[in-house]
Structures are given as structure tokens and as C-alpha cells.
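User: Here's a protein and a ligand (pyridoxal-5'-phosphate). What would the complex look like?
Assistant: Let me lay out the input and then the predicted complex.
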Amino acid sequence: SLLWEHDPMYKDSVPALRARLLANENPYGPSKKVVSTISDAVSLGNRYAHSDAATLIEMIAEKEGVTKDHIMLGPGSTDLLEKTAIVRFLEGGNIVSADPSYMSLINTSRRIGATWKPIPLTADFSHDLDGMAKAVDSDTKLVYICNPNNPTGSITEAGKLKSFCKSVAAKTPIFVDEAYLEFMDKPEDNTMVGLVAEGHDVIVARTFSKIHGMAGLRIGYIVAQPERIESITDMVRSTMGLSVTSLKGAIVSVQEDTFLAECKAMNKECRDYVFSELTAMGYDVVPSNTSFMIFPIQMEGKEFLKSMFAEGVGVRAYNFLDKPWCRVSMGTMSEMEIFLEAFKKVTA
Ligand code: PLP
């Protein structure tokens, strides 16, 4: 479980942080071109942005190799995770996912009456696909897979995941959250989006919040079978939650190949540095494929967080496998140095 959520200590200390490493935000974005585009777009704010939404949908459809009716945009992928949960669980049922994993969709599902069937990750922190397949029954309305997984930063091998999706999606839709896909070595080999094009009942979620550095601008999308998207747009209007600024920003950002590659490279540099420093200190760090990493700590979680925040360093703490863990997001290299210095002091 996540330890800090809704803790006033966290809220009060955010403005004072020297290193904000708690929400897997991109410290370098949005790109300069996105910033100037958005500044210009503010004056268009008197108009609804349906045509910009249509433009972005077309661009994404082409990039993902599907037709436009396979794409739905949302103000952040959270919106689409939540809407999918609401549509699927209006009449109850169960949701199968890994544990620990990213809880947004699962929590919304539970809140409206779904039963959660958590399947522990394997020893190498990948999804236990056999265990998950066995947990699917006639009452399962959705399987949630986060790959790479949050909070562990670990991956499940693409070939195995594809076979799982192909066989299990015949029984129940599979939601694959790929928020951190672009930080992987070979994103194109690891995405499940090709399964959607092949007609499988898979829903892939992506976001502009991570590699694009647009977390506060709120934009993301899902790629799914048209009838899955219609089941949502039947209840809610798809483009009414979107702002002209984020849409125009996203239209530019999808074309920012150089900026995106630079973010990925700088993230990896920080990741390798922090991994080697922590490993040298004796910590058992889970190899990361994302913009964050996690490792067990020798200190009670809340106490640890309090001390780190007091040092002006925001990180997150979790409890699972009967021990406390620190999850640290990759910031700039100087923020990572501040993190390591504070971490050494706090755990000395
Ligand atoms: N999915 C995962 C795995 C995440 O880690 C996050 C944010 O941290 C989200 C989805 C939600 O991102 P957003 O709503 O900003 O697109």
C-alpha cells in the first residue's frame, strides 16, 4: 500500500521541496515548441476545441496503425482509466490485476462495487500471467495490466504478454496501461497496441504526462475496439473534457522526436547513476524500465518520508512483501544528487 496519500505533511511541504521526485513527472518538459504553441493557443480559449481533437485523433490513429474510431482522448489517461472502470462495473463483477500495481482503475472499480482479485507479482516483479489467467472467471469484467508496472518499474516479457492477451481477451477485455512505455529500450516491440489492430479485445492507455512532460496539462488516450469506445461515449461526450491548450500542445508534442529522445536519454542517465549509487550502498534496487525506481529500505515508511520531506526531498513510500520501500522518480541530475545526499543523511 501507498503510505503518504492525503497526508497534510505532503501537501504543506510541496512548495518547499528542493527535489520533487514523487509523481514520476518529467523534469524537462513540456518542450519549448509546445510551450510557445500553448501560449499562442490561450487566446483561442473562447472556442470549443472539437476540430483540434479530431486532428489529434487522426495523428494518433496513423501513428498507432488503427482507424480513428479506435481512439478516444481524455484529460489525462486517468480520466480514461476511471471511465472504463465505471462503464465495466456498473453492474458489479470482478477485476483481476497484479499486486502491487497502479491503483487508479482498480480503486474506481472497487468504489462502485467490483471485487478486486489481486495476483502477486512473481519473484522478478513481472506479472504472474498464469495466475492471472486462472483468476479470470465468468464474473470477470476486466483484467488490468500495467506494463511497465508502477510502482515497481519492472516489465513483463512482451511475447508472453501478447499470448496472454490473445487467449484471455476472448473471455474478458484486457486493459494495458502503457504510461511508461516510451522509457523502455524498445517500445515498439513492447506495446500491445498491435493486438487492437488485429481485432483483439484489448484497451491500451497512453499519456502525455510522462515522456511528453505535460502532466499538468492533462491529456492522454486509449486505443481500443470501436465498440469499447462507444460503450463509454454512449454515456459521456468524449471531447468535452479537453482544452484547446492541451490539444494544440499535444499535436506539436507527438512530432517532437528530438525532444522525446533527449528526455529518454537524460532519464536513463539518471536511472543508471542512481541505480549504481544505491546498489553500491547495498540496496536491492529493482531494475527499472521507467522514469522511477523502487527499493526496500531499512526504516519505517512514514518516518522515512517525514525525514526526507524535512530535507526538502519528495519521494514516495510503499509497504508490500512485508517491508517498506522507497520509490524515487528520476528528476534532473542535480535533483538526483540532492536525493542521494538527503537519503544518506536520513538513513545514516
Ligand atoms: N497510469 C500509470 C501507470 C501512472 O503511473 C499514471 C500516473 O502516474 C497514470 C496512469 C495517470 O497519468 P495521467 O492521468 O496523468 O495520464
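Summary: The pocket of pyridoxal-5'-phosphate is lined by residues 24, 76-78, 102, 146, 150, 177, 179, 207, 209, 215, 220 (CB under 6 Å).
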